[in-house]
Write a structure and sequence with these properties.
The protein is mainly α. It has 2 domains: 39 residues, no CATH class; 50 residues, Arc Repressor Mutant, subunit A (Orthogonal Bundle). Helix content is 54%, strand content 0%. The longest helix is centred in the C-terminal third of the chain and has 15 residues.
């Protein structure tokens, strides 16, 4: 097929030609013709973003990470907490806490001011 002008293409294929070139439009047409394809707003997989946030989180940069990855600060905190639980960090901390005979954690009030 010889090179066509982008205005020869139909709707979305014209947009793809203008954005990525005719070769990409033809490849997408060949692969997806007749199908309805939607592109999610979020490009990156949640598992990748969760790992990145957990790795980059330093305790003070939650808002920065929320903006960077397009989520809320609450969601960032939830991810960090979830990854800590998954990694056993919180579990290992709880293992060292004192418990009563029923297995309930005993609060350590020694740090509280009167």
């Amino acid at each position: 097929m010889h090179k066509l002008e982008s205005d020869c293409f139909h709707g979305t294929y014209r947009d793809i030609c203008d954005l990525l070139g005719q070769k990409a439009a033809l490849a997408l047409h060949e692969h997806y013709a007749g199908q309805v394809v939607s592109f999610p707003k979020k490009l990156l997989a949640d598992s990748f973003v969760h790992e990145a946030i957990y790795r980059e989180f330093d305790g003070t940069n939650g808002l920065e990470l929320a903006k960077k990855y397009g989520y809320t600060i609450g969601w960032v905190r939830k991810v960090v907490k979830s990854k800590k639980l998954e990694g056993g960090e919180i579990y290992s901390l709880l293992q060292n806490e004192e418990r009563d005979s029923s297995g309930t954690f005993i609060a350590d009030d020694s740090d509280e001011s009167a």
